[in-house]
Amino acid sequence: MYGVNHSVVSEFVFLGLSNSWSIQLLLFFLFSMFYVASLLGNLLIVFSVTYDPHLHSPMYFLLANLSFLDLGVCSVGTPKMIYDLFRKHKAISFRACITQIFFIHAIGGTEMVLLIAMAFDRYVAICKPLHYLTIMNPRMCIFILTAAWILGLIHSVVQLAFVVDLPFCGPNVLDSFYCDLPQLIKLACTETNKLEFMVTANSGVISVCSFFLLIISYIFILVTVRKHSSGGLSKAVSTLSAHVTVVVLFFGPLIFFYTWPFPSSHLDKFLAIFDAVLTPFLNPLIYTFRNKEMKAAMRKLFSQFVMYRKMFYFIFFSF
What we know:
Layout: E1 11-14, H1 21-51, H2 58-76, H3 78-84, E2 91-93, H4 94-127, H5 132-135, H6 138-163, E3 173-174, H7 181-185, H8 193-228, H9 233-259, H10 265-288, H11 292-318
Parallel strand pairs: 1-3
Antiparallel strand pairs: 1-2
Helix pairs in contact: 1-2, 1-10, 1-11, 2-4, 2-10, 4-6, 4-8, 4-9, 6-8, 8-9, 9-10
């Protein structure tokens, strides 16, 4: 794939977030803290769902996979962004840039499909509770996960097909801290209007349509619940509020990146930081803040970890 590109440019240079040493130091501590918290929070959800039998249900299966994807989201660009804070020459090779774009869109596309699947799961659980386990059986869950990854990979490959053969022979400076298509295409030594339109049609339209499909599905669920049971409306709102929050946090930056016709580097960077650093940190908090089963499973997992650590210390120091 890389061998067919005839670019003169072998690397791209990021302008980064700031040239001020004090601001860079502050950003280093903040981003490092959020990155570590994102890793620990999402790993805790994955391990809790895996090891607690009470959480072996379709909803928590999808939630664990969402947390696994969030691990990828925060790890694609954040470590290099933190590393580059103290580098004057913030560069990335052409191959690494293409690889970064591939994983950003593969994980993003997969997460998009998974969020739609989670909305379907909530629809079945709330509107068809008697048929929930029949519809959301293990085979259906595996099918959903497989389809999400396949569609995510297809989306990423299609996106890369737009840029992998582009010639890059002039400017190589990206006013960002990571590689993505909108900024990269503008550096190509060729007419890019059609390519920019295709990227918008691929990522932008899909993001907007998926977002409104999810919002409409949540409204439909609430209307259905209200018709059948006015008392269950508050419970349904409480159940869906976490999903709606995650959907808004996920799709908001994407819609802005790929559909907003008036780009602003400062706002783009802020939303990119929010999407790459804060959203993976917030998702575990949103899904566990009011979920008693998740909190109980996490406490149980933490107590087991403490017990095993004490046993390890006892055995180690006995020798």
